[in-house]
Design goal:
The complex is a heterotrimer of chains A (about 350), B (about 350) and C (about 425). By secondary structure, chain B is α/β, with parallel strands linked by helices. Chain B is built from 12 helices and 16 strands. Classes of the chains: A alpha/beta (about 350), B alpha/beta (about 350), C alpha+beta (about 425). The interface of A and C includes residues 59, 67, 279, 281 and 325 of A.
Chain lengths: ~350, ~350, ~425
């Protein structure tokens, strides 16, 4: 009987692959200085908000107020936070998979309407019609929230097409997981973006598991962006996705390239602290592995950096935490008190006017 | 409301004179406000007129630009509008359909071509999971002004993978508009309507109808969605026919008239929304109905029409509704087998006679 | 901040589980993410992690027990708050939760066997390609088959579908069959025969309001007497069908004389009077102990009056001519309707005649008026088949029914009376003697 490892074993005479670690190195202090107090505090608070929002949402699945799928971003906060700090909502756009809560919060959508959407209330982001996987905002440029793995990649590419067509100078950031990169749409989109010089930044959030399958058992190369970008004539960046500073710095460069008219492929090596979704017991990884990654918690690292350089006191950190906790509590109360959609909404908006 | 009678009259002459165009957006001016066009020219003209009026409309697909379209429907558009607005794609139906959805969400109005609707299956996820649902799933926040067009149904002896008719498949999903015109007049009018509205449209053409010629007005006109018309009036049997089947139905009706059976041919033109009112009005008059389509019988458009007629015309039926469809087998290659698979006039005649108890 | 520790659900369908063990104690400081208990559903045992940093202020549930999902099993505080009010609220919540009937929450089901069944079915179908042919339609339903439009047009034109042969498949009646029937006028439903003058239907009250009125003294008396009669007199009944052709002819003949207006009843009264003289045992009254046979035929005639019924008497009817009887009855009836009858005019009598012939009634039985021993019920004269000379011919038939008190009158006597009456009425010229 052939084992999986035998199946995925490379023949010893395989040609060179870009497997030697291409991690983008930064000078922590330098980047911190470049970011500055205000922006860093803002991003720190954003990460706290994402974390708290996700944790509370998780709690509510156990009380059944939230049902269906719930895909949490806990552990991955540094990636989206660093990238979306560079976006101007309205001119630029972002699209992601079903793991979309962080992107929605970062682009400035009110946590109250996001939580209400998770509760399926009429005050929700999309009026209770979408749920956890389908957050959108026309004015802030969030094109979803998509349920089909890889389905969002050509859509985000289309947003880049529009930006170029209309000459808006905008860029499109397309988030996806490591599990999406084998999907046909990934390749079709990258090929066309490169062919037509579209301003798209593709960000692979490699949290090392596509649902229950380790990346190494699904993707034929270890460093996805590094290996595949040359295949499409594109530039690649790979960085430590648990490091906010690296994320921010790489994003800065990637968006500059995109706005100048070339797509870029990014890979963030990150980790998710929860299962694929709320109902995943995550038996495919060991407790030790999880414990190890918890010591690298991106929020703790930012907090440490802020406190070490004196930009935040321990008390200040506590206050910020309380503030965020209250903000999320407000969202929970709002959602509890909101009404379900009226039955007359059942068939509204099947078509646009 | 009874449908309007708009018979497919033979044009006063064919496009055969030297200098006559065979494609492109220009028709032959006949001098009295009418022009002579073929089906492909009518569609091209609609695209040309709407792209001129609205610079957000662009055309995308395989071979649409430099090749002028695999079936020359987009002939000349690249020269007029340039490569930004007439875009050749690699062979990536799923990819470019998704790109069109993203573009439609961010201010553009794409027209994408499937070289034939068989290839839309590759893009099925983008059409169903994205295009059809975006308005509903976002609570009305985003709309998808997208036209997907291309030839549908059997071609000339092109066998099983290239012969699907997809009306039933796409009309099944809420959020999609499905139209299937049979004449140049209908095609131009429906395409203009499609390009001016804000929902995803499956515009189903037919390769073997591209050369069909008709006199149409030179002036501006549109054909609304959801309105059927009569291609022939009659009192004995209603034939509801879709796309190329309209031509076969008219042939069958001519033959049946010689035997004293006068058929009324109703062309729905839109499959979704369906003008069940016009179909019902006709059936109330004739008391019998035969549906002719190129989809397969199981779950076909005829199945839907039968179910709806049961509701609207139960007390008016003298015989069960008959369906003449592509038979339940993939399209074979051999000529004689293909003839028996398709809903051709001889099968339509038999079905009408059965419904008339003759 | 007060935090309620709600027993967590491990899966979308779980409703309860076991709190296997606590990993912390009341009063412990707990870190966020620290396991505070082991919880078990029927699928697995897992750690329950603390949602917050704080103090475990109260433990409300003992380890080893079965808890409901969302049951408050503990309370944490982040800043050492007083848990008094929270405890009370938690208890309230738990009471409400546990009070719900067991059936309210969906039970955790084991993997349903059904999916396996449905998967098996298509596999079986594809195994035998021959089976892909649709089954032959079942045999046509019994009974008439009509197309919907044919049915509708037939109904609108009052066609009798049972008289049509369908030319459609399986004998289905179709539109052209209806059109043919309409063209040649066949299958029309029979027009109803020319009706005898129809009794007018009295308008009825559609509003459904009931009214209650107390009995008048007269009704009370009538009621009491009739009740007593029915309960205490052993009635028996003899019915005879009279061929009334001659009777009617005689009446007609008499009435053709100017100034003469004789009713059938007048002739019947005379006939009864004669019959009572011929069968005197019927002309009797009984007081419970003794029978009195009467000499004279004093016949009570039942007259309908507004408030009920009264029976004025034609005394010595056997001595009166038919005309005299007729006048007398008219007079009495008028008085009766005007409430001007003297008691002597309606108290007494030896025999009663009750006539419902004017309603065309076929036959009825009357109730004896005590102390009389008998009463006769005269029904209407109707067209009926009769046997004459060995052949069945149309005749005019009137049924008379004698109700007799069996204490006084025997069957044979009653029968003799009725037969005598019949003979008189069927040869009615004798009434003029």
């Amino acid at each position: 009987m052939v084992t999986t490892s035998e199946l995925t074993q490379k023949p010893s005479s395989a040609g060179t692959t870009a497997d030697s670690s291409p991690l983008y190195r930064i000078d922590q202090d330098q980047v911190r200085e470049e970011i500055g107090t205000e922006r860093l505090l803002k991003m720190y608070r954003q990460m706290l908000l994402i974390r708290r929002f996700e944790e509370q949402a998780e709690q509510q699945t156990k009380t059944r107020k939230i049902a269906g799928f719930l895909h949490l971003y806990i552990g991955q906060e540094a990636v989206a936070t660093g990238f979306l700090e560079h976006l101007s909502p309205g001119r630029d756009s972002a699209v992601t998979s079903y793991r979309c809560h962080a992107q929605a919060l970062l682009l400035g959508i009110d946590p109250k309407e996001l939580m209400a959407e998770l509760y399926g209330k009429v005050t929700g982001n999309v009026k209770g019609k979408g749920g956890s996987m389908h957050f959108f905002s026309k004015e802030k440029g969030l094109l979803g929230g998509h349920g089909i793995v890889g389905g969002q990649i050509p859509v985000g590419t289309g947003a880049g097409f529009s930006a170029k067509y209309l000459g808006s100078g905008g860029a499109s950031v397309v988030f996806m997981g490591d599990g999406a990169t084998p999907q046909g749409t990934f390749h079709e989109s990258l090929n066309m973006a490169s062919l037509w010089n579209l301003p798209v930044v593709y960000v692979i959030e490699n949290n090392q598991y596509g649902m229950g399958t380790a990346c190494a058992r699904a993707v034929s190369v270890e460093n996805i962006a590094a290996a595949k970008a040359p295949g499409y004539g594109m530039q690649a960046f790979t960085f430590d996705g648990l490091d906010l500073f690296a994320s921010w710095k790489v994003a800065q460069q990637a968006l500059a390239i995109a706005r100048a008219g070339r797509p870029v492929l990014i890979e963030a090596k990150t980790y998710r602290y929860r299962g694929h979704s709320a109902s995943d017991a995550a038996l495919y990884r060991t407790k030790e592995e999880l414990e190890h990654y918890k010591t690298l918690d991106p929020i703790d690292r930012v907090q440490k950096a802020l406190i070490d350089c004196g930009w935040l006191s321990a008390k200040g950190a506590e206050e910020l935490y309380e503030q965020v906790a209250e903000q999320v509590q407000e969202a929970l109360t709002f959602s509890d008190e909101s009404a379900l959609p009226p039955l007359s909404d059942l068939q509204t908006h099947v078509f646009a006017d | 409301m009874p449908a309007v009678l708009t018979p497919l009259l033979p044009p006063r002459r064919q496009l055969l004179a030297p200098g006559d165009p065979i494609n492109g957006h220009k028709g032959v001016d006949l001098g009295d406000g009418m022009q002579l066009v073929s089906m492909r020219m009518a569609i091209c003209q609609a695209l040309f007129e709407e792209m001129t009026a609205n610079d957000k409309i662009f055309v995308m697909g395989e071979e649409v630009a430099e090749y002028n379209g695999a079936y020359k429907v987009t002939k000349g558009l690249l020269d007029i509008f340039g490569a930004k607005r007439v875009v050749d794609t690699p062979i990536t139906e799923s990819g470019f359909t998704g790109i069109a959805v993203g573009a439609a969400m961010t201010g553009l109005r794409p027209v994408i071509e499937y070289m034939s609707w068989n290839f839309s299956m590759v893009a099925f996820d983008q059409i169903i999971s994205n295009a059809s649902k975006m308005s509903y799933m976002t609570g009305g926040m985003f709309s998808i002004p997208l036209v997907m067009r291309g030839p549908n149904g059997a071609g000339p002896r092109v066998s099983s993978q290239h012969s699907h008719a997809v009306e039933a498949l796409y009309s099944h999903f809420p959020g999609l508009i499905v139209v299937s015109p049979s004449t140049p007049y209908d095609a131009k009018g429906l395409m203009k309507t499609a390009l001016r509205q804000n929902n995803p449209v499956c515009f189903l053409e037919n390769e073997l109808l591209y050369n069909l010629q008709q006199e149409i007005p030179i002036g501006e006109y549109t054909v609304p969605f959801g309105v059927a018309d009569l291609k022939r009036q009659g009192k004995d049997c209603t034939i509801v026919a879709i796309n190329r089947c309209v031509i076969w139905a008219l042939e069958a009706a001519e033959a049946l008239a010689k035997e004293g059976i006068e058929c009324e041919v109703v062309d729905p033109r839109s499959i979704k929304p369906l003008d069940i009112g016009a179909i019902s009005d006709s059936v109330r008059k004739t008391n019998r109905c035969v549906v002719v389509e190129e989809c397969y019988q199981t779950g076909g458009v005829g199945a839907e029409i039968c179910a709806q007629l049961m509701q609207t015309c139960f007390d008016d039926l003298d015989a069960p509704v008959e369906r003449v469809t592509t038979t339940e087998n993939p399209m074979p290659y051999a000529e004689n087998l293909e003839n028996e698979t398709l809903p051709k006039p001889h099968r339509i005649i038999a079905a009408v006679k059965k419904a008339c108890y003759r | 901040m007060i935090i309620e520790l709600l027993f967590p659900s491990q899966s979308p369908t779980m409703t309860e589980g076991t709190l296997v063990s606590w990993k912390v104690n009341k009063g412990d400081q707990i870190k966020k993410g620290q396991p505070i208990a082991e919880v078990q559903s029927d699928k697995s045992v897992s750690d329950w992690e603390s949602p917050e940093n704080g103090l475990l202020a109260e433990v409300l549930f003992a380890a080893g027990g079965m808890a409901q999902v969302n049951q408050v099993v503990g309370i944490m505080t982040t800043k050492g708050e007083d848990v008094g009010p929270a405890l009370a609220k938690a208890k309230q919540k738990n009471d409400a939760l546990l009070a719900k009937p067991a059936g309210a929450a969906p039970a955790e089901k084991p993997a349903a066997p059904k999916p396996a069944e449905t998967v098996a079915a298509p596999a079986a179908a594809t195994a035998a390609p021959v089976a892909a042919k649709p089954a032959a339609p079942s045999a046509p339903a019994k009974g008439m088959r009509v197309s919907p439009v044919a049915s509708r047009i037939a109904a609108a034109n009052q066609l009798d579908l049972t008289r049509l042969r369908g030319s459609g498949p399986d004998g289905r009646i179709i539109k052209r069959d209806i059109e043919a029937a309409l063209a040649n006028g066949s299958a029309k439903l029979q027009a109803a025969p020319a009706k005898a003058e129809k009794p007018k239907l009295k308008p009825f009250r559609a509003d459904g309001v009931a009214t209650t009125t107390a009995l008048t003294p007269m009704r009370k008396v009538i009621g009491a007497r009739l009740l007593q009669s029915k309960q205490q007199i052993p009635h028996f009944y003899i019915t005879e069908a009279i061929d009334a052709g001659a009777l009617e002819a005689l009446r007609q003949q008499l009435n053709s004389i100017e100034g003469v207006k004789i009713s059938v009843n007048d002739l019947v009264v005379k006939a009864c009077a004669l019959a009572l003289r011929m069968v005197p045992k019927v002309n009797a009254t009984f007081d419970g102990t003794a029978i009195t046979l009467h000499d004279t035929a004093d016949i009570s005639i039942a007259v309908d009056i507004p408030d009920g019924l009264i029976t004025p008497i034609v005394f010595k009817a056997h001595t009166l001519s038919v005309r005299q009887i007729s006048d007398r009855i008219r007079e009495l009836a008028k008085k009766a309707r005007e409430n001007k009858l003297a008691p002597a005019e309606f108290q007494g009598g030896s025999f009663t005649i009750s006539n419902l012939g004017m309603f065309g009634i076929e036959q009825f039985d009357a109730i004896i008026n005590p102390p009389q021993a008998a009463i006769i019920a005269i029904a209407g004269i109707r067209d009926e088949a009769v046997v004459r000379g060995g052949a069945v011919v149309p005749g005019r038939v009137m049924r008379v029914t004698l109700s007799a008190d069996h204490r006084v009158i025997d069957g044979a006597v009653g029968a003799e009376f009725v037969r005598t009456l019949r003979e008189l009425l069927e040869s009615p010229a004798v009434l003029l003697l």
